Amino acid sequence: MERSEEYIKNERKQEWRVELQKKTKAKDRMAIERVEMHEMAPEERIKSQRVEVNIGLSKEEAMLEATRCMDCVNPTCMEGCPVSINIPKFIKNIERGDILGAAAVLKETSALPAVCGRVCPQEAQCEARCFYVEKLNLKSVAIGHLERFAADFERESGVISVPELAEPNGVKVAVIGSGPSGLSFAGDMAKSGYDVTVFEALHEIGGVLKYGIPEFRLPNAVVDVEIENLRKMGVKFITNYIVGQTASLDDLKKEGFKAFYVGSGAGLPRFMNIPGENSNGIMSSNEYLTRVNLMGADSEESDTPILRGKNVVVVGGGNTAMDSVRTAKRLGAERAMIVYRRSEEEMPARLEEVHHAKQEGIEFLTLTNPIEYIADDNHRVSQIKVQKMELGEPDASGRRRPIPMEGSEYTIDATVVVVAVGVSPNPLIPNSVEGLEVSKWGTIEVVKDKMQSSIPEVFAGGDIVRGGATVILAMGDGRKAAANMDVYLKEKYLSKKVEL
Amino acid sequence: MKEFNSLEDILDFAINEEQLAADFYTELAGKMKHQEMKNTFEQYALEELGHRAKLEAIKNGKKYKVSEAKIADLKIADYLLDVDVDKTNITYQEALILAMKKEKIAFRLYNDLASAAIDEPSKKLFLMLAQEEAKHKLRFEVEYDSNILTEN
Question: Where is the Rubrerythrin diiron-binding domain (chain B) (predicted)?
Answer without folding.
Answer: 9-141
